[in-house]
């Protein structure tokens, strides 16, 4: 073990992420031969293969997965130490990567980012989007430090912690000049026959809509544009008669008059909440810790952004379902 070097761990990380010796070499700005030699040195230290290899592919062995887990922890510890040193010498700086997968949290997240920038102007914040699985994998690997998303089993698992921020009412919104706007006698069969901005599969609103329609023995709308991006939904609302299912705060922020309106229809609340998630298994970088603490202070100081029940922020470990 004394002959194991930090560069060996960096090589294992790079190869695991790239899934190719050539691509890992390109990322590290070294030759493929140098990567292969370093892996041979690692395998000599442990006396067994770290990767299974084939033509154009590599795959971690059980030993390799154990080495990778330690490499991630060591990498996070070193990154955290670098942040601390920089913070002590000249103020916190560097990059804080935050995943986002909850439109209803965007106003709250924007306010928090603005407040954070006022205190730590040298920290560059990078917002990362993607599928739930992609963002969860990034959080597991330490490539994002915080994730703002739906607190559901497809994202959270053992080792992750959460802070619930809000559970929002759900509404059906329509274009401002939609024929259904202002009507009081609405029902779901009539709504299903309209043209929809349909939430994309895997999102909280899509799952909620499917449950609502399934309970009424109704299928999904047949006329739709499939998107959960409010920067696309709002222009569509201006151009034609569309309806969509959204959290109330999203409708009030993005789809208010003269763009759209909330239809007078009682919609059951979604069962999931949305909030902040972080990886307890990896060391928390100081910039991520500072941002997380600011989020919790924002919640304590601004009860309006909490769930309607006004309960305290929930902090708990989650187990895999």
Q: Name the CATH superfamily assignment of the largest domain.
A: Periplasmic binding protein-like II
Tally of strands: 13
Number of domains: 3
Which secondary-structure class do the elements indicate? alpha/beta
How are the strands of the largest sheet arranged?
A: 4-3-5-12-6-13
Domain HTH lysR-type: 4-61
Protein name: LysR family transcriptional regulator
GO molecular function, one term: DNA-binding transcription factor activity
Keywords: DNA-binding, Transcription, Transcription regulation
Question: What are the main properties of this structure?
Answer:
321 residues; Arc Repressor Mutant, subunit A; D-Maltodextrin-Binding Protein, domain 2; 3 domains; six-stranded mixed beta sheet; three-stranded antiparallel beta sheet
């Amino acid at each position: 073990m004394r002959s194991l070097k930090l560069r060996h761990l960096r090589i294992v990380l790079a190869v695991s992420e790239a899934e190719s010796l050539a691509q890992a070499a390109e990322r590290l700005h070294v030759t493929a031969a140098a990567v292969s030699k370093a892996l041979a040195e690692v395998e000599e230290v442990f006396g067994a293969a770290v990767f299974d290899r084939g033509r154009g592919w590599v795959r971690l062995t059980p030993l390799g997965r154990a080495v990778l887990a330690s490499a991630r922890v060591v990498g996070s510890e070193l990154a955290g130490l670098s942040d601390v040193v920089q913070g002590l010498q000249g103020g916190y700086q560097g990059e804080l990567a935050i995943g986002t997968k909850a439109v209803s949290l965007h106003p709250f997240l924007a306010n928090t980012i603005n407040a954070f920038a006022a205190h730590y102007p040298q920290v560059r914040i990078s917002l990362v989007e993607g599928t739930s699985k992609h963002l969860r994998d990034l959080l597991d690997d330490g490539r994002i430090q915080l994730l703002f998303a739906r607190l559901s089993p497809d994202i959270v698992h053992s080792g992750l912690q959460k802070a619930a921020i809000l559970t929002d009412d759900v509404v059906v919104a329509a274009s401002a000049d939609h024929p259904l706007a202002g009507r009081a006698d609405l029902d779901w069969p009539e709504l299903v026959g309209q043209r929809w901005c349909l939430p994309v599969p895997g999102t909280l609103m899509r799952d909620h809509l499917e449950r609502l329609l399934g309970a009424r023995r109704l299928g999904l709308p047949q006329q739709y544009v499939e998107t959960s991006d409010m920067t696309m939904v709002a222009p569509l609302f201006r151009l034609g008669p569309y309806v969509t299912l959204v959290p109330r705060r999203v409708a009030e922020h993005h789809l208010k008059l003269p763009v759209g309106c909330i239809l007078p229809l009682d919609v059951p609340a979604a069962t999931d909440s949305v909030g902040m998630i972080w990886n307890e298994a990896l060391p928390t970088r100081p910039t991520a810790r500072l941002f997380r603490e600011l989020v919790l202070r924002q919640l304590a100081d601004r009860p309006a952004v909490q769930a309607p029940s006004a309960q305290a922020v929930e902090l708990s470990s989650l187990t895999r379902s």
